[in-house]
Amino acid sequence: MAVSYNGLWKMLIDKNMYKKDLASELNISSATMAKMGKGESVSMDVMERICKYMDCNIGDIMSFEKDEQKTEE
């Protein structure tokens, strides 16, 4: 399964914010932001800080996407 942060990116757009604004406001490292941009997992501490700041639930900002593997019959 892959992690998707599309909900967070959409939320930032709706609030006229940039990723760098969020990182600066919550003291999130550039390495962590890069991981999120690549769809990699980050610590629950980071996710909790984002949820508190954005006033949302974790499901609003991230989701899991199933890897689509086709099997031949």
Structure explained in plain terms:
Helices cover 55% and strands 8% of the residues. It has a two-stranded antiparallel sheet. It has helices at 6-14, 19-26, 30-37, 44-54, 58-61; strands at residues 2-4, 63-65. The mean pLDDT is 91. With 73 residues, it is mainly alpha-helical.
Mean pLDDT, rounded to whole units?
A: 91
Give, in order, the helices and strands. EHHHHHE
Beta percentage is: 5-15%
**Rg:** 14 Å
Number of beta strands:
2
Low-pLDDT residue intervals, each spanning 5 or more residues? none
Estimated helix fraction: 40-55%
- Order of strands, widest sheet: 1-2
Q: How are the SSEs placed, and which strands pair?
A:
Layout: E1 2-4, H1 6-14, H2 19-26, H3 30-37, H4 44-54, H5 58-61, E2 63-65
Antiparallel strand pairs: 1-2
